[in-house]
Amino acid sequence: MSVHRKPAPHNIVNLNQDIVKKFNANQNNNDIRKTHLFEGRYENIYLSEQQIPELKILIDEAVSLAEDILMVKNISAGYWFNAMPPESTTTLHSHDDFDELLSAVYYLHVPEDSGNLIVYNKTVNNKEEKIEITPHAGEFIFFKPDIKHEVGRNNSNEYRLSIGINFGVK
Fold first, then answer.
1. What is the tally of structural domains in the chain?
2. Is pLDDT of 157 > 70?
3. Of all residues in the chain, what percent carry a pLDDT higher than 90?
4. 162 DSSP β-pair partners
């Protein structure tokens, strides 16, 4: 299978609450870069390690896990937040626009029934297999960047917050 689920170590999971608080504190900052406007919301929100220093520890862990999966050293990571409000979805897409080697998502806050990650894995006979993954806070999900994926409707009353990550050659 081309999807890898990896629980984050406790030292990373313990940062989730601080990262969420600092993300929320930056929401009224007009200097934040936002892209991918769909259904009235920006799917990609870019905050840096200067704004949220805890991100360095999280991204370093993600790079280490990605290097283990890829069996390659010296890779880099680009990342963004995805704040998914109630009633929203993320449309079908892939991450193979540039030179990505691997993609991932890390879940910071996942209310119950806030939308599954749906990936479409190509099988040996080139058919697409639909895989629904119920995410959990403190979990990384890694997948090939050319895998089409989407996120089901957030049926909870809360935002779900995750970080999308693409890995490439330094």
1. 1
2. yes
3. 62
4. 82, 107
